[in-house]
Each structure stands twice: as structure tokens, then as C-alpha cells.
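Researcher: Sequence recovery benchmark, item below. Answer with residues only.
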């Protein structure tokens, strides 16, 4: 009986020794509260934290690791967790009677994820985003977001609904963190344009008027279109669609909307008859249409924050960042131009891409080094479109860029990060 008591005493002493070292007693063990996320086949080491009553020993205590569902994830004796199949389980780290748990989420690894750019007419309603993902079984597990819901919204199935004219981004997120992004352009106006000439045969020195109609037959204001002649040596056309015959020959008159929807009509110009007589005149029309590729004078709102990208290389301690076009600032800039008597700048998608890239550049080197356009304004620290436009307006050099009549195209981008930093770039051509 005494022997049994001595054995029990020594076992208790051994357990106490296991939890006590150099006068320090282990009082607690914990694991991070956030989920441990893995892909199938991926691994990660658990990171238990120990609490001691006294100075912590050089080596931690012996820990027993277990997984609640080894069909989802396993854990070895050293605390390395391996994803087995998509799902969720719990792993436990135990030291004696003390233990801690952490949730493990295992996702299928994304092999590829792409999304196509979208051009949405304001009158057409929702359209399905064209997304390609591998493995295909991830298609129902994607998350959809738009950068600015004032321009376009997207539901959980990927149906994008236009709200008002402008530009924003469509972001697709896979469960393992893979992402894809594409531009959304919301436009309005005619989808087709039909031109009709009062006369298709015009005597040199004479005139005719070309009018425009949309796909419903409704008249389109000539002043809202851009007019051109295929051969100004034969015929010229003004901003109201009035054509003047210059010399004998044929010329095609074209009108185009801000969103590159175009129509055309061909006219024949003839020398005046040398003998008396009468001629006949008639009318002719032709139509054409195209999808928009940008636009001018568009309106829209600023960006909505969402953690979407890793910070650019060399960008200090900044975390995620979001960079998007900002048509609110662009509209405010055009209002300043109008007040100064300058024509509105046309929005240019290619310049928008440059502006977004330059946002990343100035986060590392806040200067005009690397500028890619004839004109450029940059700013840091302004949280919204109105404040950055006011700041640029107060600076003579920046203001001259904004109202210069030598520029006809432009774009503005805004980048901000999880630390509250804001960068702005306006480009001009």
C-alpha cells in the first residue's frame, strides 16, 4: 500500500515537473483566434502561445496535437497542419490538462481565374459577368464586388446591373484568395445611328444637310455628335451636319457618338451642268453601330474601399491597397474647365490604365519621375475627389494643367490602402 502511494506521488511530481521549469510554472496555452486557411495539399505550422508563472524556459513544453476531422485536415506531432479536402475542422494543442483550439478552413486551390471587361448600356439592365475559373467546381464559390456601386452593382451570382454612366471595376475573389479584376463601362445614348442626307447628289459649291436618328427612329441632336468627311477635298461637314460640296467626286460623311456608335452616308458631288436643264435630287441613308470604348463627359462616383491587391514592391509597411478610376474627380475637373471657357476633356480608358499605374509609382517615389503623358497632376493625403480638386485648383501649375485647351483627353485614378493613405493621379493628353 505504501509502495503504491509512493508511485502515485512520483507520478504527480513528474507531471508537476513537466509543467514547471526553472521555477516557472505553465499556467496557460492558447492558439490564434483567426481561422487557419489552407488549400488542399497545403501546409502550415500551428503557433501555440504559452503563459508562465515566472520566467519562461528556453524550450516549450511537450504538446499533443489532434484534428477533429482528419478527412479535412491532419496535424502531425510537431504541429504542422496539412489540408486534405475542402471543408472545416478544428485542431487542438494540449499540454497536460490545458488545451487550446483553432479553426482550420481548407479550400480547393485556384488554378486560373479570369473575367472579361464589360460594356453595359444604361437601358439594358443586368448582364452576366463572363468568368472562367479552374477547377470548374469553384464557379459556385466565387465572391463578386464592384469598386463603385453608384456606377454598377453585382449580385452573388455575378449579374452586373448598370446604375449610371461611368467607369468602375469588377472584382472576383476565389475562396483561396485568388482574384481577377476587369473594367466596367456604363454608357448611354444611341445604340445605332442612321444618317439621312437631304440630297445625295450635290453640285459643287452647293450644300445639303445630313440628319441622324437612333435605333428607334428618334432624332439625335447633331451637336452631340462628332462629324467627319472621308475626303475634305470633295466635301466638308460642320458640327451641325451641314455639308458643302468642294469638288467633283464621292465623300462619305460619318457621325459618331461619344461612345463610338457611328453611322455614315455617301454623297456624290458634281460639277454644275454647262447647259440649261433641271436635275433631280433624292435621299439616302445608311447605319452602323459599335460597342463603346470609353466616353467623354461621363459622370460617376469615387472608389469604395475593399482589400483587393498586395502592396506594390518597395511600398514600405503598407498592407493591401485599392486602385480604381475616379470619374467624380474627372467630372469636377471638367466643371472647372467649363467655368474657364475650356472644352470638356474626353475620358480615355488607355490613359486611365496609365493613371492607375502611376498611382502605384508615386506611392514609392512621390514625383513626376516616370510620367508617361504630356500633362500630369499628382497628390497625396486627400480622402475624396472634391478635396483633391480644390487643392489642385489652388496651385497655379496644377490648375493650368486642368484648364489647358491644349489637352483634349484625360483620366483620373485614386489609390488608397488599409493604413488610410490616399494617392491621386490626373493625366492629360
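Model:
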Amino acid at each position: 500500500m505504501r509502495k503504491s502511494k509512493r508511485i502515485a506521488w512520483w507520478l504527480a511530481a513528474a507531471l508537476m515537473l513537466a509543467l514547471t521549469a526553472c521555477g516557472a510554472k505553465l499556467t496557460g496555452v492558447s492558439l490564434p483566434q483567426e481561422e487557419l486557411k489552407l488549400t488542399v495539399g497545403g501546409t502550415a505550422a500551428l503557433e501555440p502561445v504559452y503563459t508562465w508563472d515566472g520566467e519562461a524556459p528556453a524550450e516549450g513544453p511537450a504538446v499533443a496535437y489532434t484534428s477533429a476531422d482528419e478527412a479535412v485536415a491532419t496535424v502531425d506531432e510537431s504541429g504542422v497542419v496539412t489540408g486534405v479536402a475542402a471543408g472545416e475542422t478544428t485542431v487542438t494543442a494540449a499540454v497536460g490538462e490545458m488545451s487550446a483550439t483553432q479553426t482550420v478552413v481548407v479550400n480547393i486551390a485556384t488554378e486560373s481565374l479570369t473575367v472579361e471587361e464589360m460594356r453595359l448600356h444604361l437601358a439594358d439592365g443586368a448582364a452576366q459577368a463572363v468568368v472562367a475559373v479552374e477547377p470548374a467546381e469553384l464557379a459556385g464559390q466565387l465572391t463578386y464586388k464592384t469598386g463603385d456601386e453608384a456606377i454598377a452593382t453585382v449580385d452573388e451570382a455575378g449579374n452586373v446591373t448598370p446604375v449610371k454612366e461611368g467607369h468602375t471595376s469588377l472584382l472576383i475573389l476565389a475562396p483561396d484568395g485568388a482574384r481577377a479584376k476587369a473594367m466596367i463601362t456604363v454608357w448611354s445614348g444611341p445604340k445605332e445611328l442612321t444618317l439621312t442626307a437631304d440630297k445625295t447628289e450635290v453640285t459643287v459649291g452647293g450644300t445639303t444637310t445630313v440628319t441622324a436618328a437612333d435605333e428607334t427612329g428618334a432624332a439625335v441632336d447633331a451637336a452631340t455628335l462628332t462629324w467627319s468627311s472621308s475626303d475634305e477635298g470633295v466635301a466638308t461637314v460642320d458640327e451641325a451636319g451641314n455639308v458643302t460640296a468642294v469638288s467633283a467626286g464621292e465623300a462619305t460623311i460619318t457621325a459618331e457618338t461619344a461612345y463610338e456608335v457611328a453611322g455614315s452616308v455617301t454623297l456624290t458631288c458634281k460639277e454644275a451642268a454647262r447647259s440649261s436643264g433641271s436635275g433631280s435630287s433624292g435621299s439616302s441613308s445608311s447605319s452602323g453601330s459599335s460597342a463603346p470604348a470609353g466616353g467623354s463627359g461621363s459622370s460617376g462616383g469615387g472608389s469604395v474601399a475593399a482589400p483587393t491587391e498586395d502592396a506594390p514592391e518597395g511600398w514600405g509597411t503598407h498592407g493591401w491597397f485599392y486602385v480604381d478610376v475616379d470619374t467624380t474627380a474627372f467630372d469636377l475637373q471638367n466643371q472647372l474647365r467649363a467655368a474657364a471657357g475650356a472644352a470638356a476633356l474626353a475620358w480615355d480608358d488607355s490613359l486611365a490604365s496609365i493613371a492607375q499605374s502611376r498611382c502605384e509609382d508615386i506611392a514609392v517615389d512621390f514625383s513626376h519621375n516616370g510620367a508617361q503623358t504630356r500633362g500630369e497632376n499628382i497628390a497625396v493625403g486627400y480622402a475624396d475627389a472634391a478635396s483633391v480638386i480644390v487643392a489642385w485648383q489652388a496651385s497655379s501649375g496644377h490648375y493650368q494643367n486642368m484648364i489647358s485647351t491644349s489637352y483634349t483627353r484625360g483620366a483620373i485614378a485614386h489609390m488608397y490602402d488599409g493604413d488610410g493613405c490616399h494617392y491621386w493621379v490626373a493625366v492629360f493628353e
